[in-house]
C-alpha cells in the first residue's frame, strides 16, 4: 500500500501541502475495516487524527537523534570538516534551520525518496551530495548503522516530534485490538511523545515547519525542551518545561480511556498522561509568549509564496 508521500518524490515535503502525507491511505483502510491496525513512524502522524482512529500503542523509542551519512570519499570527515560549498541533502526544514547556524559554509538541498533511493543518490559517481542527514532510528532499523559517520547532539540539532518511535494506529472503538497491542507500550516513550505532540499541537505546527524538541524522564516527570526556528535559522525561541505541583493539583482524572493528542492508552495512569499533555501545552504557551507565533506565521507565508 502506497501513500501520497510515497508517490510524490519530485517536491520537498514542505511544498506538497498535505498534512497526512504518509498516513491517509492507511487510515482509510482502517476505517473501511480492511485492516485492524497499522504501524507508523510516529513523527509522520499528525497531532489531530481523523475521527474513528487513535494511536493504541507506542513502543520503546530508538535513538531519536539525526545522523550524518558521508559519501565514501569523505567518510572520515565531520560536517565542520567538509569544504565550503559542499552540498548536504535533507528534506527537513527543521534540520536545515538548525544546521545552517552551526555550519554556514555548507549548502543544504532537498533529497527525497526512501532510504535506499537517498543512499543511492549519495553514492552515485559524480553525485552532487557530500553527505545526507537522516534519522538515526531509520538507519538502525534497516541494518545500516555502519553508514553513520556522525550522530548530531541535541546542542547541534534537536529532533522532530515523535522521532525514533513507532506507533500502532487502530480504530478507536476497537477495545479488543487496543488491549492486545497495549503490551507493546513503553511508558517513558509514551509520556515523552504525548508531551511532544501536545507541544506541536498547541503551536499548530506540523512536520513541514521548523519545530524541534528534546525530551527525557526525570524523577518520573517529562522534562521537555522545545524550539521554533525561522527558515534560515537566524531567528529562534527556545525553552524547557517540566510540570509543577500546582499544575498537578488542577488535573481532572475522570475514569475511562481518553484520546489525548490522538493517543488512546490502555492500562496507563490518566494522571500521568494528562501531566505529559500539560507539559507540552505549557511549553508551547511559553514559546508563543516569546514570539513563536510570529516566527511560524512568517515561515508559512514564505512557504506559500514559493
Description:
- By secondary structure, the protein is α+β, with helices and mostly antiparallel strands.
- The chain has 11 helices and 13 strands.
- It has helices spanning 4-7, 13-16, 24-31, 93-102, 115-123, 136-141, 175-181, 187-203, 245-249, 270-289, 292-305; strands spanning 37-41, 53-58, 66-70, 87-89, 107-109, 129-135, 150-151, 166-171, 211-218, 221-229, 236-242, 259-260, 263-264.
- Helix 8 packs parallel to helix 10.
- The relative contact order is 0.16.
Unreliable spans are: 3-18
Helix content estimate: 25-40%
Number of strands: 13
Q: Identify the overall geometry.
A: globular
Termini separation comes to: 31 Å
Largest sheet: 5 strands, mixed
SS content category = alpha+beta
Q: What are the secondary-structure elements, in order, as H or E? A: HHHEEEEHEHEHEEHHEEEHEEHH
Keywords, separated by commas or semicolons:
disordered N terminus; three-stranded antiparallel beta sheet; 11 helices
Task: Sum this structure up briefly.
The chain is of the alpha+beta class and 306 residues long.
Layout of helices and strands, plus pairs?
Blueprint: H1 4-7, H2 13-16, H3 24-31, E1 37-41, E2 53-58, E3 66-70, E4 87-89, H4 93-102, E5 107-109, H5 115-123, E6 129-135, H6 136-141, E7 150-151, E8 166-171, H7 175-181, H8 187-203, E9 211-218, E10 221-229, E11 236-242, H9 245-249, E12 259-260, E13 263-264, H10 270-289, H11 292-305
Parallel strand pairs: 4-5, 4-6
Antiparallel strand pairs: 1-8, 2-8, 3-6, 3-7, 9-10, 10-11, 12-13
Amino acid at each position: 500500500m502506497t501513500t501520497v508521500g510515497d508517490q510524490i518524490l519530485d517536491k520537498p515535503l514542505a511544498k506538497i501541502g498535505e498534512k497526512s502525507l504518509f498516513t491517509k491511505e492507511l487510515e482509510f483502510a482502517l476505517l473501511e475495516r480492511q485492516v485492524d491496525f497499522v504501524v507508523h513512524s510516529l513523527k509522520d502522524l499528525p497531532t489531530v487524527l481523523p475521527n474513528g482512529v487513535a494511536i493504541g500503542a507506542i513502543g520503546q523509542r530508538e535513538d531519536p537523534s539525526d545522523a550524518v551519512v558521508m559519501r565514501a570519499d569523505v567518510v572520515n570527515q565531520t560536517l565542520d570538516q567538509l569544504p565550503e560549498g559542499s552540498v548536504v541533502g535533507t528534506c527537513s526544514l527543521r534540520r536545515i534551520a538548525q544546521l545552517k547556524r552551526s555550519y554556514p559554509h555548507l549548502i543544504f538541498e532537498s533529497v527525497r525518496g526512501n532510504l535506499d533511493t537517498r543512499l543511492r543518490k549519495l553514492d552515485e559517481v559524480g553525485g552532487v551530495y557530500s553527505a545526507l542527514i537522516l534519522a538515526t532510528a531509520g538507519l538502525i532499523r534497516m541494518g545500516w548503522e555502519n553508514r553513520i559517520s556522525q550522530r548530531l547532539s541535541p546542542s547541534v540539532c534537536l529532533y522532530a516530534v515523535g522521532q525514533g518511535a513507532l506507533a500502532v494506529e487502530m480504530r478507536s472503538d476497537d477495545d479488543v485490538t487496543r488491549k492486545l497491542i497495549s503490551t507493546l507500550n513503553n511508558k517513558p516513550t509514551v509520556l515523552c511523545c504525548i508531551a511532544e505532540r501536545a507541544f506541536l499541537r498547541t503551536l499548530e505546527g506540523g512536520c513541514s515547519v521548523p519545530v524541534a524538541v528534546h525530551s527525557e524522564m526525570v524523577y518520573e516527570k517529562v522534562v521537555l525542551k522545545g524550539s521554533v526556528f525561522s527558515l534560515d535559522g537566524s531567528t529562534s525561541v527556545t525553552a524547557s518545561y517540566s510540570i509543577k505541583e500546582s499544575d498537578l493539583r488542577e488535573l481532572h482524572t475522570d475514569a475511562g480511556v481518553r484520546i489525548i493528542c490522538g493517543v488512546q492508552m490502555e492500562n496507563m495512569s490518566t494522571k500521568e498522561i494528562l501531566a505529559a499533555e500539560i507539559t507540552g501545552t505549557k511549553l508551547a504557551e511559553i514559546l508563543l509568549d516569546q514570539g513563536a507565533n510570529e516566527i511560524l506565521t512568517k515561515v508559512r507565508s514564505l512557504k506559500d509564496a514559493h
